[in-house]
Amino acid sequence: MANIISDETIEYVGILAKLELNEEEKEQAKKDMGAMLDYIDKLNELDTTGVEPMSHVFPVTNVFREDVVTNGDGSEATLSNAPSMKDSGFKVPKTIG
Amino acid sequence: MRLMSLTAVELGKKIKAKEVTVTEAVTAALDAIEAKEKKVNSFVTVDREGALKRAEEVQKMIDDGTLTGPLAGVPVAIKDNMCTKDLLTTCSSKILYNFKPTYTAEAVENLEKAGAVIIGKTNMDEFAMGSTTETSAYGATKNPWNEAHVPGGSSGGSCAAVAAEECSYALGSDTGGSIRQPSSFCGVTGIKPTYGTVSRYGLIAYGSSLDQIGPIAKDVTDCATILEAIASYDKKDSTSIARDDLKFTDALVDDVKGLKIGIPRDYFGEGLDPEVKEAVLNAAKVLEEKGAVVEEFDLSLVEYAIPAYYVIACAEASSNLARFDGVKYGYRAKEYEGLHNMYKKTRSEGFGTEVKRRIMLGSFVLSSGYYDAYYLKALRTKALIKKAFDEAFAKYDVILGPAAPTTAPKLGESLSDPIKMYLGDIYTISVNLAGLPGISLPCGKDSNGLPIGLQLIGDCFKEKKIIRAAYAFEQTREYEHSPLA
Q1: Which domains does chain A have, with CATH numbers?
Q2: Domain membership flag for residue B70
Q3: Which residues in chain A are closer than 8 Å to B341, comparing Cβ atoms?
Q4: Is the whole-model pTM more than 0.80?
Q5: Closest chain A residue to B378 measured between Cα atoms?
Q6: CB-CB neighbors (< 8 A) of A54 in chain B
Q7: Mean pLDDT over all residues of chain A?
């Protein structure tokens, strides 16, 4: 395997991805990611000098509208999906110590 | 009369002619589900009560002349990544185990306006990440042709439900082949439209620049009719395109005289099952005999599509799936310490292995220091792939090839080697990268009796050409019902 994923890298990716892995999962993730990157490195065979990155196939522009409410108040229905709520708001664990 | 063995359009005609009531049609679908679900597991949710109630409403609207379209009263199944108001929408993930959307996806709403009756939500690979429907948190779907085999994926539930005749037709979504590959494995027909043709509003995003909703049904006529119903310009989807001509059924003509068909040599090399190759080339011969001009050519860059796709799709997925954090909807971990730990625990417990794998890869390729080398490189590769297709479509009306290199693998054989599974998408993935329309339809069976799919690819906005070629080919063979039908 050409790409060796270090413990630090997988730790960092875990922070970015907001995922907590146990030791076994970490080892597997290192292996999987290394293998995928080896495979993705195939792209380096291609000379892409001067090629513009294409994020969308068609030109996309922002779609604007006036800031006018067109739908009704759906807060109750929206909140009914929340794992936890309080006083018409989403309830989350304490964020400041 | 076996109502579920009819095509959607045939059933719609009978309902219109008052030979069949909507309630009879919907009951036939619900009974079929009842009888077959233990074997096939196509559905995550069946809405028996809602469907029967809706059947009565639709019948009234047909009777008073409000609904006159070809799909009025016909029962449909919806892939579980499309939001349906007040009806469970899980994406086949534990993290959305209890999610009831507050609105309906635009494509589904368009179907409802056409008088469709939703009977349930179909199983899929978790968040559409997979090629076998085995990554579902709610159990694998089985192939109606042979229950020891997978139905393909990620729209495996939708394709299996159509093949098992548990519904008249279904909606699927296609990010890298997720409509065309399972259609091929299940012996049904599916279209991935040009990017931007069907609104993505209410489709739970995987790879936003690649995702498209499309129809899955027994034949080309159904697919063209359904696509006509779901396609629309939608301001709520900023990538939606206002197209002039959405009369796809006008292309249902049995005439391919002079149609220029290109066969990419690079689609018929190593890794292609010889029986698949033979069936697909035979289909090309059939079209040639009907007057099409068939020619081989080199498409190039085929082997770069999969690595480019996984960088782009995973990058977009890592961003799109950031919203599942245990705050606004779905699963929240039971035990945690503080906010960040709650996010982490919720996501780690709520997502399955394949989803985590892709989120991590996506986070990595977007991270500082790797963004240029991986993400931008993939976007540059995408530009080259698009150019290769542009050059091909300067010469040909339609590109013909297999939908997948093999027929359906056995259950349990694919997940242990992800890269091998990803390679199964080699013929479908570049179509998404280039935003093109593609159709998969049955063209034969292998020696094990498993269906083989023919893929026809068109230039952007040229659905009509592939529909016409597919329709002409379809006229030369009978639809084969699966043993579970």
Answers
A1: 7-41 (1.10.20)
A2: yes
A3: 20
A4: yes
A5: A43
A6: 379-380, 382-383, 386
A7: 92
